[in-house]
Amino acid sequence: MAQGQPIFILPEGTNRSVGRDAQRNNILAGKVLAETVRTTLGPKGMDKMLVDGLGDIVVTNDGVTILKEMDIEHPAAKMLVEVAKTQEDEVGDGTTTAVIIAGELLKKSEGLLDSDIHPTIIAMGYRKAAEKAQEILDEIAIDDVDSEVLLKVAMTAMTGKGTEAAREPLAKLIVDAVEAVADEDGVDIDNIKIEKKDGAVVEESNLVEGVIVDKERVHPGMPSEIKDAKIALINTPLEVKETEMDAEITITDPAQMQAFIEQEEKMVRDMVDKIVDAGANVLFAQKGIDDLAQHYLSKSGVLAVRRVKKSDIEKLSRATGASVITNLDDLTPEDLGNAGIVEERKISGEEMIFVEECSGAKSVTLFVRGSTKHIVDEIVRAIEDAIGVVAATVEDDQVVAGGGAPEIAMAKKLKDYAESISGREQLAVNAFAEALEIVPKTLAENAGLDSIDSLVDLRAAQEDSFYMGLDVFTGEVADMKEAGVIEPKRVKKQAIQSASEAAEMILRIDDVIASTKGPEDMGMDPSMGGGMPPMM
Predict the structure, then answer these.
(1) 211-360 is classed in which CATH architecture?
(2) I need a surface site. Which of 114, 396, 469, 504 has the fewest CB within 10 A?
(3) Is 93 a catalytic residue?
(4) Tens digit of pLDDT for each residue in 351-402?
């Protein structure tokens, strides 16, 4: 056997980067992604226009929406997208903050790697710093949370987004909605339905103590408005069931055919009678209602809606107190729900069913208006963020000041903490502290201010109070608590936790093996995807 013959253990065409090359590649991907969303941060942040392959447009400054809509291929960048998604799922806001902190942690680690500090030591230093940062957050948190604070939290979340013109009335609607569905177990934001329609100004948005269903009555002969509604919810079809097996019926006499049709009609009429006898005058069906059933329901003066989404049926149940019935034989008056009024209204040329005046509704609907489709979509994204932060505040009962104040406070205290750590980890803790300053620095840059001057002023002002942050409208340092710029503690806590864990994971990667073979080359169905994408 010839000496020095190469041994191939990976298939031909595999891309592999090892050691510093792999780390540099991953860090670069993280930095590029963070730079992409960085300009959207804060009240003076800009928007992005995203155009997909079909030409559909999304205009937004919501970090997670931007990252979801972008077609990201780099595996390390995908890990940062996961940071944003986690932030969105856990809190609903702070996605841009989480990504830019993660990007800055990776950027700071580059300098440490160039100084021959081992990635594991950097990761351990980052972990210690993240734990200490959480303790500092607890120290600087504000505990006295009331409805006024909740309003400020909602308004802070919506500042700089498409809702800014009407943020005060919208904030009031959001706080009312969250307080309506809150119970001793916390706030299930799934109980707040958001229904949107363009064709009106945002100020016309309102809160419905009940549910709006984007459907119309099944028959024009039905009443379009019912007061003191008794509502039945069924998830079984109102039609003659098909038999399970194939059966053939031979009819020899036209009278037999007539009897057969009459029997089918009787079965449908019996179903309708069961609903009417129970006292229902409004029916929401998850499945179909055939023509004959529609006729009988119309004759009985019942307003019926069919093919209602399962999620809407559940919300109707929580709002009206009705039980969802699978077998009509089991329907009793006790299973019916109550609403002050059920009405079909024409909104922007389309009919919608409004179920309102539900006493003690545990499910409510925010009816959001906007002048165009793109504007109303961005308003909904801002409202979803605000609902998330208000719900987090109600559950945790703790907030922090905004305007970069908590980041400066954490950075300052982390630098003091670093002095108590011996060895090279101290440098990593210091780097973590400096990375947190990216938030106030970015706020200043996006507002057209000098970021260095702003940081110097902030550090000096924080000697007196943890609440001193950057007022981007005046360009001055101000008390954020007094200015009403308040965020939930959970937003900051989750952002730091997710960002530090993602940065640690990316730092520990020293070998990236990427298959360039497509699914077809592996004998797989191409539609299933597969393999890792090529590196940048």
Answers:
(1) 3-Layer(bba) Sandwich (3.50)
(2) 114
(3) no
(4) 899 998 887 778 888 998 888 888 888 888 888 888 988 988 888 888 898 8
